[in-house]
Write a structure and sequence with these properties.
The protein has about 280 residues and is α/β, with parallel strands linked by helices. Helices cover about 35% and strands about 30% of the residues. It has a 6-stranded mixed β-sheet, sandwiched between helices. The longest helix is centred in the middle third of the chain and has 14 residues.
């Protein structure tokens, strides 16, 4: 299990148990702001668990539609403060850009300040031109059922703090390729996608993404941006996530626990045709 530097902080707490009180040392999931810049111009600030910051920035730029491929990313670096403090800024250089950073700043500010309605969200995804993921990809249900245990075995920071989300990327054989943790589920996804961007692996059209917690709209759209055909979670998806997955043909799975899961969209990727036909008849 990997524990990125700065991802855990120690503190003293008072523990009460069955009438006994004692002072103990406890581990906390670290939280700090990360500013992402294009050149020297600030784009957005996100609260994240420090560690894998370059991956987080690369993934964010791709999943939010600022870049469409790794080729557009000319450079990525942590901006080290003059006083030698730890960096909480990542600067990206983007080639062939056709956008105004000021417009992007306003869009991100509006989304973070007031939220986004369902209809506007779906329309924004349509305008981005995200493509439906590979329909030929299939995954064995038994392979899916082994993924939660594989994730738990590698959640190093969660094991110490109990306070982080995880996102994990698997290949079609169920091999765990990358796992990242963060206080924000969307940040964990961006870190995994960023890992793929920096390793020239896109599109991820032969892969499965699994997340802890629920599968929300923002997770579905980020997975679609990376070309991922199957998204699974240990909890329920949101209604808007289901609508988006069905519209673009993604396989969306919830409540993946033990030997059971619920398919909300794209059954054909994990259920053989004859079995799927029988389900419809019943």
């Amino acid at each position: 299990m990997r524990t990125p530097p700065r991802s855990v902080e120690l503190t003293r707490v008072t523990e009460w148990e069955a009438g006994s009180v004692r002072s103990v040392q406890d581990s906390l999931a670290a939280e700090a702001p990360l500013e992402i810049r294009i050149g020297a111009v600030p784009l957005t600030v996100t609260m994240r668990t420090p560690g894998d910051d370059l991956e987080l920035a690369a993934g964010f730029l791709l999943t939010e539609g600022i870049i469409e491929s790794a080729d557009q990313l000319a450079g990525l670096r942590s901006a080290v403060p003059e006083n030698g403090a730890k960096s909480n800024v990542v600067e990206a250089e983007i080639r062939d850009s056709e956008f105004a950073v000021g417009d992007l700043q306003r869009n991100f500010f509006a989304a973070s300040s007031c939220g986004i309605c369902g209809k506007a969200s779906i329309e924004a995804i349509r305008r981005r031109g995200l493509r439906p993921p590979d329909r030929a990809f299939k995954i064995d249900p038994e392979i899916l059922c082994g993924m939660p245990d594989a994730i738990r075995a590698e959640q190093a920071v969660f094991a110490r703090t109990g306070g982080l989300h995880a996102a994990a990327l698997f290949d079609e054989h169920g091999a765990l390729l990358a796992l990242r943790e963060d206080i924000g589920r969307h940040n964990a996804v961006d870190k995994v996608v960023g890992w793929a961007v920096l390793n020239s692996m896109l599109p991820l059209n032969r892969h499965v993404l699994m997340v802890s917690g629920r599968g929300g709209f923002e997770i579905v759209q980020k997975a679609l941006a990376a070309g991922i055909p199957v998204l699974a979670s240990v909890s329920a998806p949101s209604s808007l996530a289901v609508k988006l997955a069905r519209e673009l043909g993604m396989t969306l799975i919830g409540f993946l626990r033990g030997k059971r899961f619920v398919i909300y969209s794209g059954e054909f990727r994990c259920i053989p045709y004859k079995e799927h036909e029988q389900v419809i008849k019943n």
